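Task: complex structure prediction.
Instruction: return structure tokens for all chains below.
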Amino acid sequence: MAYDRKQGQHQVAQSSRPDYRVEVGHAEVPVGAPRSFIVLDPARAATLTGWTATLIPSGGRRPDAGSVGAAEYIDATVHLVPALRPALLHGIDEVERLALSKTGRAFTECSADEREDVLRQFQAADDTDAFNMVSDFTYEAYYGHPTVLAALEAENGWRGTAPMSPSVITPFDQSQLERVRTLPRRYRAVDAGKGVKA
Amino acid sequence: MNRQPGADVLVIGSGAAGAALCKRLSEKGAKVICLEQGDWIDRTRLPKAHVDWEVRGRRHWAAKPNVRRWAGDYPVASEGADPVDVYMYNAVGGSQVGFAGNYWRMAPSDFRVRTLDGVAADWPFDYEELAPYYAINEAEVGVAGLAGDPCGPPRPPLPNPPAPIGRPGQLLVNAYEKLGWYWWPTEQSITTADYRGRPACTNMGWCTFGCTQGSLSTADLTYWPGALENGVELRTNARVREIILGQDGRALGARYYDKDGVIREAHAAVTVVACGGLGTPRLLLMSTSATHPNGLANSSGLVGKNLMVHVQSFATGLFDEPVEGWHGTWGGTVSTRQFYETDPARDYVRGFIMSGCVGWSALNLALQIAPWGSGHHKAFDEHINHEISLYLCGEDLPEETNRVELDWTHLDGFGMPGVVTHHELNENSHRLGRDMIAHARQVLEAAGAKSVRDAGLAPIWGWHLLGTARMGDDPQTSVADRFNRAHDVPNLFIADSSSMPTSAGVNPSATIQALALRCADHIWDLRREWSSTG
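Output:
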């Protein structure tokens, strides 16, 4: 897919491989719906779950991303877009390889700090876009989840479900325009077919 | 070939312009057929009908046609030093189905850019000629706002009161008052009171993700119900391949593939192209023939040239206090045209607006500022509900090198070409953009922001795709005349964003629809010239 290109920090497609940012348009995966893994085997599913939980760990009332189904969401997405499966499988296997070489243990058996180190190493060397893909999809699965939105509202008042619920805002107070109404005209009036009016 | 009975007017495209044309002409008594390559929006699939609305906005509802890839979409490539990130929808209602509702009139000086500032082109008519159509359109769609803005000519009261500005808007009001600048509540294409069968806005926010209750005035909800009631025949999933000509050189109508992929023709006395800034040049360039080898209506060579997209950015201020940015209209609270007119003291011509928004939604914000890992929540919590944004929009001057061309390497589902855009900001736009961002920072700091970040001038947001079949009096330097009639084909009209000779520095939807209404009246005035059809 070569329709888009990179501009500044706005990363889009490269022609050499399918770009997840472009390919996901037909992958409608409702966030938070009950689902189990389809594409990933249990071992890789466990690694991906740990990966997503490391990207967004728990904090306060907010759960970690792994426990709200981010890995299952990613799995469901690549199920609908098979072209993205190779990058995901490569990424998971590479994370496991790095974990083993750095700690001698499986990624899921590493401490939180070790997992973060492994992922930072993988991110730094990743030229497949797998890290960015998993990261973006994890953020989607997290910030679209009703449990997370409820926790956000409880903790800082942000109502992520506002689009489903009407609210009241004080009508605009026109008296605030008192000063502006007294200002001189600020546009150039134009004589028809000619220049600016005096 | 399946030929179908003719009409008085064939309108190609059912978006902001096409919808207005169809209703206006049909209420005068014209028999109108409209071909739309997309379909009606399934309102149950609007992102905001679902709790994961932000995610749906990145997938099924994505504004980029290359991501969304609905059946009516065609490939869009982007090239040039400042490539355009194209955002558009192919559906009944066109790209309005995903717009925010910012709804501006252009200023009188916007119609005289060459005369006043020595650059670009003049429009072939003045503000006063379009003003009545602005007013008609504002009544049709139920615009919310307040007359009396000293940055524009006097005008009648608007149909609906301004939207509530909330805490974000109040912070900006405080800043503008502190700076002594002009400001005004932003006009928005939103029914803030019950209006013509549509309900009052209830502040659910994030308007571009689809207004589930229908207070956002998109063309599928404003013009189309009346047009259909008047008898307009709307054919959806109709992918037009070419405009067809008779032996006399007049347009006969269009050849298109119907929803089943069957080739058909639609005939009419008058044909109107209203496919938008990319779709219109695409169709004209596809409509080649022995007499028009370079595309229809293209004797000037300007079809597809002079693509304008606006110089745009966002600046976002971070505040200590919560801003209640989770509700309220997204597209605008209060705005300023303090820097809209050319000022000889500045190092560029033309100007810009700054329009206050409520801030960023959770997912969007997290992707911007919250790094993954152990610091994620701390960074996120510092910003969420503590930011307001200014949308910045400045004039992008026309350049012939900024253009749309057919892309025969990427085809749509019917073997028709995609398009490739080429775009580079000129030096004036760079200077304007830098000044625009600097002043936005000034406003946010005056509002009390403890820090400000901005989006720079990249990517080039392709929400406003303008100028690619521009109107003018001279057939050598324009594609259509002052009434949107193609110079080369007497019964062919080009009536959409592509016909705008310059971009002004404001969102174009109101102007596009006013132009369409004016064009419709002209077509009706010429009805005695309509030939027999079919």
